[in-house]
Specification:
globular, alpha+beta, 18 strands, nine-stranded mixed sheet
């Protein structure tokens, strides 16, 4: 297992043990007064699927499919109302999820707002114009031709190995070792002329985040707080920073599933919210964009534009984060779907299941049997399934209570203590922090051997920052 994969494995394991575990008591969806506003700024409205022209039995199958495929949550919105909302134990609706690369869509959305506000004059503005105060390496005519648009479309031409469709992800390893990510990305040599070749890269959205800060004088997160999150009523999030304190453009944003759905709903409504235009005209009409084919091995039609993945043959587009963090928009069907998960979602199966559940543009007759199927499926996935517990193994008794100290390592792990014989089994870890120099962070996290998760630390992003050795400047 390579270094970055090990780091992600360790982080994922520890974050899993920090999850808030409660049982979800679900009720059948309730119809709302159709005359009420459908803007979910303060609260999403709910409805039965049939009232919005969807089949509860088909959605029940989708909920069950999610249980077999490691979903953490599933939301289906039609005509501005949630018609299906499932949380898979131990997850509940009040737990923010790291949305991984779906963050890129938020970064692109903010850039669109900067453009609408007139702070960016044109999308074909050369990238290097924003960094004239830096000494940039490997500058040639091709690098001078990189524009904001080519960054948004992953066609900047910068030499970057992130393992898309294979590869060693070597550039990601090198970036993680860098203390100045913006400089590292700007200094990359060129592999292609801009606009010619799609090459997926975390470097492009990180540079876009830096450009947003240059143009607004604010961190991208602070600009989002004012221009995007506040209008949409998003109040619970965390967004991590790079070693220089800049908002990460490529990932490390945590959102609630219902707030992820608001982002999709903004795009479904052409960049308008409560009658106010937030995005430039046409920005959110993704299916009309000039796109780049990504040459995906499993779908020759899959395309890309403005950090958004597009399936033109199905008339669907989505924000796509690692391990199934998706915001999917079906503009023809007036549907938004959100998933959070622990492994990659099979896109075609999801898209076909949702499309197949849409039966009519208008309301269907009520279907009590199908409604009961859906309600039972939602209740079932919300309940943790116990595991039989045997006696404590001899090796567990032998290692419990001992503290293991580690020499300097790239994970920053200083010590580890495991206690399986305590009435409340737990482990403790200590990590070095880059800032302040010489400081560390210690965490005590509960564990269980009975199939039930335990409530651990609430500040998951802090733990993530400790593991990645990044300073948490600006809070």
């Amino acid at each position: 297992m390579d270094t970055l994969a090990k780091k992600h494995f360790v982080l994922s394991a520890i974050l899993s043990l920090c999850t808030l575990l409660t049982y979800l008591s679900s009720e059948p969806a309730r119809a709302q007064d159709p005359d009420q506003s459908v803007w979910p700024t303060k609260q999403w409205l709910t409805s039965t699927p049939e009232e919005q022209g969807m089949d509860s039995a088909e959605l029940a199958k989708l909920v069950t499919y999610g249980a077999r495929n490691s979903f953490d949550s599933l939301l289906v919105v039609r005509h501005g109302r949630i018609v299906t909302e499932a949380y898979y134990a131990p997850y509940t609706g009040d737990i923010p999820h790291q949305i991984f690369s779906s963050t890129k869509v938020i970064t692109g959305t903010l850039l669109g707002m900067v453009y609408k506000d007139g702070l960016l004059d044109r999308l074909d503005h050369p990238m290097l114009d924003f960094f004239t105060d830096r000494q940039v390496a490997n500058v040639d005519e091709r690098k001078k031709a990189i524009t904001v648009q080519t960054l948004l479309d992953m066609t900047s031409g910068l030499d970057w190995d992130q393992g898309f469709e294979g590869g060693k992800q070597q550039t990601m390893f090198d970036l993680a070792r860098s203390s100045n990510w913006t400089q590292f990305i700007l200094d990359r040599p060129m592999a292609h002329s801009p606009g010619e070749v799609f090459n997926y890269s975390n470097g492009n959205p990180d540079i876009v985040s830096a450009i947003i800060t240059r143009l607004t004088g604010k961190l991208a997160e602070d600009y989002a707080r004012e221009k995007l999150f506040a209008p949409l009523g998003i109040v619970d999030w965390h967004w991590d920073r790079d070693p220089q304190g800049l908002t990460m453009g490529h990932g490390m944003l945590y959102l609630l599933p219902r707030d992820m759905a608001k982002i999709g709903y903004l795009y479904l409504h052409h960049g308008e919210w409560e009658g106010k235009r937030l995005l430039p005209q046409g920005w959110a009409d993704v299916l009309n964009h000039k796109t780049m084919n990504v040459h995906a091995s499993d779908d020759p039609n899959e395309s890309y534009s403005n950090f958004i993945w597009i399936f033109p043959d199905k008339h669907v587009y989505m924000a796509n984060g690692k391990n199934g963090q998706l915001i999917v928009v079906f503009p023809d069907l007036d549907v938004v779907v959100v998933t959070t998960a622990r492994k990659q979602v099979q896109y075609k199966a999801l898209l076909d299941a949702v499309s197949g559940a849409v039966k009519s543009e208008s309301a269907l007759p009520s279907n009590p049997d199908a409604a009961e199927q859906l309600a039972n499926a939602i209740k079932d996935v919300a309940v943790e399934k116990p595991t039989p517990v045997g006696s404590t193994p001899e090796i567990a008794s032998a290692i419990s209570g001992k503290t293991y100290e580690f020499s300097d390592n790239e994970f920053g792990l200083r010590s580890f203590t495991l206690d399986l014989t305590d009435p409340l089994p737990h482990f403790e870890v200590e990590f070095s922090l880059r800032y302040p120099v010489g400081s560390s962070a210690r965490y005590s996290l509960p564990i269980g051997r009975d199939g039930f998760y335990r409530k651990g630390c609430r500040s998951l992003p802090t733990l993530a920052s400790a593991m990645s050795l990044r300073p948490r400047e600006h809070g």
